[in-house]
TrEMBL record:
Involved in the maturation of [NiFe] hydrogenases. Required for nickel insertion into the metal center of the hydrogenase. Ni(2+) binds at H2. Belongs to the HypA/HybF family. It comes from the Bacteria. Signal peptide: none annotated. InterPro entries: Hydgase_Ni_incorp_HypA/HybF_CS, HypA/HybF. Keywords: Metal-binding, Nickel, Zinc. Zn(2+) binds at C70, C73, C86, C88. This is Hydrogenase maturation factor HypA. One of its GO terms (molecular function) is zinc ion binding. Transmembrane segments: none annotated. PROSITE patterns: HYPA. It comes from Pseudonocardia endophytica.
Amino acid sequence: MHELSITQEVVDQIVAKLGDVRVRRVRLEVGRLSGIVPDAMAFCFELVTAGTGLEGAALEFDRPSGSARCRTCGAQFRCSEPLPLCDCGSADVEVTGGTSLRIREVEVEPACAPPADAPTTPA
């Protein structure tokens, strides 16, 4: 299951940037042709976030569809299979979209503000 190492890398990147800040939500873009299974990644997310600022954070996925261009006839089309075929029958196809993995958004807990009546200078 390669999702474990991929998820660990995503968490490591967030922790490296934010430290121990509490995270509420992480939104990832995982293209439909990326070879990554979101359900497996969600399972791994719970495992690898234990003891970090991401523990308990919600994990959301954007799933852009795949797109390709036929080198034989020039047609551009949407696809959902990792080995797309053009309607013309050609397998000489260049995948042009849907292979992405990106951290799109990280929502953190707001920092606690001091009480309104707290002194602003040391006493």
